[in-house]
Write a sequence for this structure.
């Protein structure tokens, strides 16, 4: 398969038959150095597990950057009506006189496999509402490692903001007492004052993060903290 790489890569740049979803043409005429980056990136992604046939049908080049300190290939994955971006940053190390490229996709996508089916967008959004609530925001499609095994998944991600729990009278009194005591100690700049500022104004809202696997329909939920409220004047 490695000996066929130049021919397969060239085929990926040819006009595809209608409806095939394959790469139609590179975004511009690539230099020899850029073509080498593309070939190396393609090989690195295939090495994570997907087949060459799947790659050539569903990945296309979005951008190639070949500058000192910034070498990368940006791919667009299109499958099942979804599109996601895969950014492969290319570094290198030396072995004697030889320079060996390294690819960030080896870490970002440690295990991959061909995607043979997907759920509909409508189904995915229904699952997201069940998972984190009906008022979710900023839905995006991502292709990245998911789960403990690091296997790459095509995901619909979104988040919703959960209002902070209302303080009881006793909790508010305790917080205000702590603030007064800290102010009496004339807290200086540094972590102690930053902590005081975070406490003022009550608890921050919580962000609930959702990720729906667009193949299996499984939804996972994470919790984050929204930006700290501004301290009271």
């Amino acid at each position: 398969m490695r000996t066929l790489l130049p021919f397969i890569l060239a085929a990926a740049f040819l006009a595809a038959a209608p409806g095939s979803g394959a790469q139609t043409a590179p975004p511009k005429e690539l230099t020899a150095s850029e073509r080498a980056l593309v070939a190396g990136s393609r090989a690195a992604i295939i090495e994570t597990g997907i087949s060459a046939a799947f790659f050539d049908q569903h990945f296309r080049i979005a951008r190639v950057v070949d500058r000192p300190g910034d070498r990368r290939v940006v791919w667009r994955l299109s499958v099942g009506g979804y599109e996601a971006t895969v950014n492969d940053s290319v570094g290198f190390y030396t072995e004697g006189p030889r320079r060996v490229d390294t690819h960030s996709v080896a870490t970002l996508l440690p295990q991959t496999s061909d995607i043979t089916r997907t759920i509909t967008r409508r189904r995915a959004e229904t699952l997201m509402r069940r998972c984190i609530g009906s008022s979710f925001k900023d839905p995006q499609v991502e292709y990245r490692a998911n789960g403990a095994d690091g296997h790459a998944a095509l995901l619909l991600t979104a988040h919703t903001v959960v209002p902070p729990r209302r303080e009881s009278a006793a909790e508010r009194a305790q917080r205000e007492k702590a603030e007064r005591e800290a102010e009496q100690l004339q807290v200086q700049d540094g972590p102690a004052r930053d902590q005081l500022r975070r406490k003022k104004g009550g608890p921050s809202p919580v962000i609930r993060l959702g990720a729906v696997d667009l193949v299996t329909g499984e939804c996972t939920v994470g919790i984050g903290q929204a930006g700290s409220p501004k301290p009271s004047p």
About this structure: Strands lie at 59-67, 70-79, 82-95, 98-103, 137-145, 152-162, 206-213, 219-225.
